[in-house]
């Protein structure tokens, strides 16, 4: 944690049961060498007394926009200038909504508006409140304005529910803070990524698709963001929330995905084709629901555009990484795809197993490039994604040198 030596962290605490975890976060930050000041909202004081954070930080706690004990009548400006990072942990749904709307009716909200420094939030709330479309829209808009959104985690909640909404543990927040002061491996890099399945319509109610859940692609988006990349995620239909900070382009069919990719690719340094794109589509999509009339039915199919091949064939192509999901002859098919599509790298994974590939939380990869190979052993998909991003960084750097 040498990156935190002498760094100035302004920690905002809002009302929520997770406020008790922030006391441990203060302790960890100071142990790592940071200087910490704490700002509390009025509702936060209903959960933990300011004296707790004062004792841990060694400084008085700021609680009121018009504090009679303030060192200056303009503390909200001085504090905003003082810090290297403003972190709100926990950040309640109420606070996030007000922050997104630009409210300044308490000291902490005012600081968020007044600061030119990086701002991060660690959401903490009931799982249903987190899933609410209003909360999701608030987080999406905050992320679009370069607010770092860390979490939430999934698990048991104080109300008895289970699901996403728990504040990240203090150790994870400490690691995230430290990363803010370490240059990312992909800082300044534009990364374009496809994820999920595509759906090819048969009629207004039926379609052809595959078993891709999008979990691997979304994990790659998160890992790339953590490495400092600016990520555009072109996603087919999935039941996942895009990682905060990613620019999401939602599509359905292979043709829509192709058009979205081609609109974005000219500005991209790296392209990762992780989506499970349907190879074929129905030649003539019925305008009305097809009725059951015979014992069998024939559907003429035509070939879809090959998105990965189209990108790699561009005159000024980005660094291209493909995926090969196979049930047999993994290396043979992956190397053939690498060569035929003129790719820089390909990640091959066995599918159809209970513990890797589609619809699972774990995966394993065999990664190939022109003169090399690396195996990534089975792990959760985010861990796999981080290792793959590290390999991509290595090969991308070599390709540019």
Structure explained in plain terms:
The protein is globular. The mean pLDDT is 90. Helix 1 links the parallel strand 1 and strand 2. An eight-stranded mixed sheet has the order 12-11-8-13-16-17-18-19, with helices on both faces. It has two domains: 178 residues, Flavin prenyltransferase-like (Rossmann fold, 3-Layer(aba) Sandwich); 211 residues, Rossmann fold (3-Layer(aba) Sandwich), CATH 3.40.50. With 401 residues, it is of the alpha/beta class.
Task: Write a brief caption for the model.
The chain has helices spanning 19-31, 50-57, 75-82, 93-101, 107-114, 127-131, 133-144, 170-179, 215-226, 254-264, 307-312, 330-340, 381-400; strands at 8-13, 35-40, 85-91, 119-123, 148-149, 153-156, 162-166, 190-195, 200-201, 207-208, 230-235, 247-250, 270-273, 280-282, 301-303, 319-326, 345-350, 362-369, 372-380. The chain has 401 residues and is α/β, with parallel strands linked by helices.
Descriptive keywords:
Rossmann fold; alpha/beta; five-stranded parallel β-sheet; globular
Instruction: Report the helical percentage.
Output: 25-40%
Structural class, by secondary structure, is alpha/beta
* Beta strands, count: 19
* Mean pLDDT, all residues: 90
Instruction: Quickly give the CATH architecture of the largest domain.
Output: 3-Layer(aba) Sandwich
> Which strand order do you get reading across the main beta sheet?
12-11-8-13-16-17-18-19
Largest sheet: 8 strands, mixed
The low-confidence runs, each spanning 5 or more residues with pLDDT under 50, are none
Q: Ends: how far apart? A: 30 Å
CATH homology group of the largest domain: CoaB-like
What gross morphology would you assign?
globular
Say what the CATH topology of the largest domain is.
Rossmann fold
